[in-house]
Amino acid sequence: MNPMKRMAAAWSALVVLFVGAGCSSSGGDEEDTPQPAPSASGPSTRPADGDTGAFRGMTLPSWNTHDYDSPQAATYLQQIAATGARWVTLTPTWYQDRVTDSELRTTEETASDESLRSIIRRAHDAGLAIMVKPHVDLVKGGDRAGIRPADPDAWFAAYRRFITHYADLAADTGVEQLSVGTELAGTSQDGARWSGVIAAVRGRYRGRLTYAANYDEYRNVPFWKDLDVIGIDAYWPLADRATTDGAQLREAWKPIADELAAFSERQQRKVLFTEAGYVSQRGTTTAPYSWTVSKSDGSAEQAAAYEALLASFDGKAWWAGVCWWMWDDWPDSGETAKHLAYTPHGKPAEEVLRRWWAHTG
């Protein structure tokens, strides 16, 4: 989820239901368990090899340089683990000024490498496996899907430097999975250049790789077979009006699940929901991608949406799991009041997660 969209509803509201996926599963085969990347200086403890399990995850995004090494970090990780999650996703972000630019840079909103190393150690100590999912955003806001560089060669050269930086860090810290990109629909159809980026990452990092395509982007991505798993940010609208009707929501997922199953078979890759989430606002199932659907409490609708996704996909052989967007904002950084935000913490949706996850292996 683009953090710049925290100021307004994102993406097109005219999108119709067509195909989708998410980031959590209680069933998984031994062959799907990612192996930690070799590391010369890995964490003091980490999930044992073969024990990272199906991807039952929660995103803990960063908005500032020192979020990940703040005193709150350890508390958040313990809370995430208490839901039954086995994975946490971290999102260091670099920025460019305009959609046509070729330069990527860090800002005061970019998590420092030191803070990333710190939270990776803490997450492993808490028994969590890790996906690092670097983001690129625009300094003045806007949708990263609109990035279309005027000089593609220069942009991809800059992007390769950016993503291999995190491949090195992931390899050095024993991170279990890395996303090579997130919702870059304006560039993701350039299969040749992306294959070159992925090859450069493979030369530095031996863990599992994915790319986090938006739900209306994934079918146009030509490089899935260069990766280990198909990643989809699963923000499909499920209703045309606010609802807590679980049967209706599960019915809405059926054609999406059918399309994803067929796509998975064609690509010979499992589908991971690299993001899925719902604000606790009335109407969230009509526009899951929006931070600002309404000003009315929708915690029951959020919980119903969590339940429907897990009930619709859990146990499907082609589904690798779900990573929910997102846990609590850092103190003083949230632009959406917690009782209306994406976090399930302290809401009925957290209890849904505990029922599905806490007692599964």
TrEMBL record:
<keyword id="KW-0732">Signal</keyword>
<feature type="region of interest" description="Disordered">
    <location>
        <begin position="24"/>
        <end position="62"/>
    </location>
</feature>
<dbReference type="Pfam" id="PF22612">
    <property type="entry name" value="GH113"/>
</dbReference>
<protein>
    <recommendedName>
        <fullName>Glycoside hydrolase family 5 domain-containing protein</fullName>
    </recommendedName>
</protein>
<feature type="signal peptide">
    <location>
        <begin position="1"/>
        <end position="28"/>
    </location>
</feature>
<dbReference type="InterPro" id="IPR055151">
    <property type="entry name" value="GH113"/>
</dbReference>
<dbReference type="InterPro" id="IPR017853">
    <property type="entry name" value="GH"/>
</dbReference>
